């Protein structure tokens, strides 16, 4: 009899604990139904959240109750915000992210050179975007590799943009070209940028071109 009571009590506590939590799961996709791995999913003003896996799937458990705001972020895409009512059980959300586009400002022609404003070139990354990008490990160039049109070949220094060569890609800080933006690397060790993301207000990535001088 005592054994039966203990088993019943254990089952009751287990059911009560499950009733007090909510499982939120789903899939993150982008345009053309492509899955998005490494997206950040979090409940606003809490520590509850996760990142999507290689297939864009995510799942996490929270003890929060009532109306909560779910935020999904990924570099190069608009933030997705959704309001959920948490009362226990399972909530499934399939989320489609919209790609973020920033239009170029007007081009100014002056003295045989042209300049484009850096405010809205293409994709602007805040320091927090860089350090939260999955796989970037807090490296500016590691985060840029995840953007459409950018890639890296082996352990070579530099980014390859739209199939171009690494020497065609330039790093410019406050209008000055940086000749050596990477640390010196050893064989078979991936290169990293020399600059920490929080040294700057933002990082602008453009797959178009840079000013002729």
Q: Would you write up a description of this structure?
A:
By secondary structure, this protein is α+β, with helices and mostly antiparallel strands. The chain folds into two domains: 2-96, Immunoglobulin-like; 108-205, Ferric Hydroxamate Uptake Protein, Chain A, domain 1 (Beta Complex), CATH 2.170.130. The protein has three helices and 15 strands. The strands form six sheets. A four-stranded antiparallel β-sheet has the order 3-2-5-6, with no helix packed on it. The chain has a three-stranded mixed β-sheet with strand order 4-1-7, with no helix packed on it. Strands 8-9 form a two-stranded antiparallel sheet.
Poorly predicted regions are 1-17, 106-121
State the end-to-end CA separation: 89 Å
How many β strands by DSSP? 15
Structural class estimated from helices and strands? alpha+beta
Main sheet record: 4 strands, antiparallel
Number of separate domains? 2
Contiguous helical run count = 3
Helical content band? 10-25%
Order of helices and strands: HEEEEEEEEEEHHEEEEE
What gyration radius follows from the Cα positions, in whole Å?
23 Å
Task: Identify the CATH architecture of the largest domain.
Answer: Beta Complex
Strand arrangement, largest sheet? 3-2-5-6
Measured by DSSP, the beta-strand proportion falls in 25-35%
CATH topology of the largest domain: Ferric Hydroxamate Uptake Protein, Chain A, domain 1
CATH class annotation of the largest domain: Mainly Beta
Shape: elongated
| Overall average residue pLDDT | 75
């Amino acid at each position: 009899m005592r054994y039966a009571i203990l088993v019943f009590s254990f089952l009751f506590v287990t059911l009560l604990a499950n009733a007090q939590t909510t499982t939120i799961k789903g899939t993150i996709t982008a345009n053309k139904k492509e899955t998005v791995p490494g997206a950040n999913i979090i409940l606003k003003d809490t520590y509850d959240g996760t990142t999507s896996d290689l297939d864009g799937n995510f799942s996490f458990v929270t003890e929060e109750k009532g109306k909560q705001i779910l935020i999904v972020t990924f570099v190069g895409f608009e933030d997705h915000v959704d309001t959920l009512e948490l009362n226990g059980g399972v909530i499934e959300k399939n989320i489609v992210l919209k790609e973020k586009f920033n239009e170029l400002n007007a081009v100014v022609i002056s003295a045989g050179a042209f300049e484009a404003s850096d405010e809205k070139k293409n994709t602007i990354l805040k320091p927090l975007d860089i350090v939260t990008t999955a796989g970037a490990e807090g490296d500016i160039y590691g985060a840029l590799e995840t953007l459409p049109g950018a890639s890296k070949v082996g352990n070579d220094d530099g980014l390859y943009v739209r199939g171009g060569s690494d020497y065609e890609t330039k790093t410019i800080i406050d209008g000055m070209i940086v000749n050596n933006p990477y640390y010196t690397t050893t064989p078979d060790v991936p290169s990293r940028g020399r600059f920490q993301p929080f040294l700057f207000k933002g990082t602008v990535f453009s797959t178009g071109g840079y000013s002729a001088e």
